[in-house]
Amino acid sequence: MKHRLMAALVGLAAALIVMSPALAQGEPRTGGATVSLAGQWLRQGQAGFVSVRGEGIADVRALFQGRLYYFYPDGSRYVTLLSAAVDTEVKDQPLQVIVRYTDGRTEQIETMIPINWGNYARGAVMLPAALYSLLDPEVNRAEDAKMANIISRFTPERYWAGGFVQPNPGEIVGYFGATRLYNESYWYTHTGLDTSMPEGTPVTAAANGRVILAGALPIRGGYVLIDHGWGVYSGYAHLSQWLVVPGQWVRQGDVIGLSGNTGRSTGPHLHWEMAVGGVWVDPQAFLELGLTLEPTT
Ligand SMILES: [Zn+2]
């Protein structure tokens, strides 16, 4: 009995040693790469910046929450934008980093990412009868699936430079992450940031990128989605007009459409949404990341 208890304790101790400490400390690892997260934690529905440093690195990938992330060379380090879905469980979540070296060796580093509470609001929305069809779960499921499929793709090039700019300054009428009860029957978590603006206001690209979608969707209405590379996308919804076509290159500040009140919308406003690594993230928090990256060559 004593032996078994001792064996269990030794096993537990070994397991604790194998599990790395929270990577916020960014402790160097002897003979290997160092992984560090900018900041102390990831909040639910937020993106974070992860760096890997080491000698002779050829390639870095990581698994987090069942999603694969590619790292990109940036000066002397490899970087990626990691993201936590808005419904990620609040606890330390494992990040498995796989480093491949130029001499053919590979190293797997497992570290824990603390997930912090998003503290998003709850609210209620009443839709007029004309929009009841947009509460159909199948309509929502189809649009969610279409969007999830697109935003989970990684473009290896980074198209943006010098950060992102909020395309919809003005009075905020809806925050990211808010769980809304529609017509006392249907719950939906808000994927973007809403600001009110008169119909027909020019809507500008948050950063350089390539247009992936431009057209009408049931829920989002008139919609433009821009791929910024590295798994980062920005979307602009409820447009009265879209002025770009898929495949078109846009620069930060270019007018891509005119605001409106189309789709599941109860008044003229722009819904701006940002996706990173296949999940929607808080656009305001994304702006605050302050991405300082070397220019792409
Ligand atoms: Zn919205």
Give a written overview of the molecule:
With 297 residues, the chain is mostly beta strands. Helices cover 12% and strands 42% of the residues. The chain is built from three helices and 23 strands. Strands 11, 14, 16, 17, 18, 20, 22 and 23 form an eight-stranded antiparallel sheet that branches. The radius of gyration is 21 Å and the shape is globular. 36% of the residues are buried. The structure holds zinc ion (ZN). Zinc ion is lined by residues 174, 190, 192, 194, 271.
How much beta, percentage-wise?
35-45%
Low-confidence stretches: 5-30
Topology, number of strands: 23
Element-level helix/strand string: HEEEEEEEEEEHEEEEEEEEEEEEEH
Q: What CATH first level of the largest domain would be assigned?
A: Mainly Beta
Give the topology, please.
Elements: H1 2-18, E1 34-37, E2 42-43, E3 46-53, E4 57-64, E5 67-70, E6 72-74, E7 77-84, E8 92-101, E9 106-116, E10 122-125, H2 137-151, E11 172-174, E12 179-182, E13 186-189, E14 192-196, E15 202-204, E16 209-217, E17 221-229, E18 232-239, E19 241-242, E20 249-250, E21 255-258, E22 269-276, E23 279-281, H3 283-287
Parallel strand pairs: 2-9, 10-12
Antiparallel strand pairs: 1-3, 3-7, 4-5, 4-8, 6-7, 8-9, 11-14, 12-13, 14-22, 15-21, 16-17, 16-20, 17-18, 18-22, 19-21, 22-23
Zinc ion (ZN) binds next to strand 14.
